[in-house]
């Protein structure tokens, strides 16, 4: 809408990670001044109102794993999800109707910083997913 000059929305839902991206910031109004009035509210989280938007809800895409024997390494990062040598087990990915979450994990693993994720480099994300495809039992 911004690129065509035909903006018909005042508000829209976006995720916190997308709202923090440079791509988002280039097409939205900076809310820094608006957010100042909420800076000292003790009952709000630190990211409740930021330049990129106001937090309405929190969600997460988590890395879950089955524990092994005591003392065995456990996965702690998305990069561990891609480490098929250290963790030679089957993998599964969520089916949320918003595949950007899985692609974001792939891109974070490949070294892209959170603030550079969007717009997603789809080809790069798919290449990362291809690397672990043989170990994925559930897409």
Question: What order do the helices and strands come in, and which of them pair?
Answer:
Elements: H1 16-19, H2 22-27, H3 32-35, E1 49-50, E2 53-54, H4 78-82, E3 91-92, H5 100-109, H6 122-132, E4 136-138
Parallel strand pairs: 3-4
Antiparallel strand pairs: 1-2
Describe it for me?
This protein has two domains: 1-59, no CATH class; 78-138, D-Maltodextrin-Binding Protein, domain 2 (3-Layer(aba) Sandwich), CATH 3.40.190. Helix content is 29%, strand content 6%. It has six helices and four strands. Strands 1-2 form a two-stranded antiparallel sheet. Strands 3-4 form a two-stranded parallel sheet. The longest helix has 11 residues, at 122-132. 11% of the residues are buried.
Helix content: 25-40%
Strand order of the largest sheet: 1-2
* Overall number of structural domains: 2
Return Rg in Å: 18 Å
Q: Report the count of strand segments.
A: 4
Query: What would you call the structural class?
Result: mainly alpha
Which key features would you list for this structure?
globular; two-stranded antiparallel ribbon; 2 domains; D-Maltodextrin-Binding Protein, domain 2; 139 residues
Describe, in short, the structure shown.
It contains 6 helices and 4 strands.
């Amino acid at each position: 809408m911004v690129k065509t000059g035909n903006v018909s929305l005042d508000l829209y839902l976006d995720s916190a990670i997308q709202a923090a991206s440079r791509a988002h910031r280039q097409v939205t109004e900076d809310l820094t001044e608006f957010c100042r009035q909420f800076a000292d509210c003790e009952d709000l989280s630190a990211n409740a109102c930021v330049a990129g938007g106001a937090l309405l809800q929190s969600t997460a895409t988590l890395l879950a794993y089955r524990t092994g024997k005591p003392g065995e390494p456990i996965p702690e990062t998305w990069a561990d999800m891609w480490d098929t040598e250290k963790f030679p087990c089957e993998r599964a990915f969520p089916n949320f109707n918003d595949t950007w979450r899985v692609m974001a994990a792939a891109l974070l693993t490949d070294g892209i910083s959170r603030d550079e994720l969007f717009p997603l480099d789809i080809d790069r994300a798919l290449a990362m997913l291809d690397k672990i495809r043989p170990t994925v039992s559930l897409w």
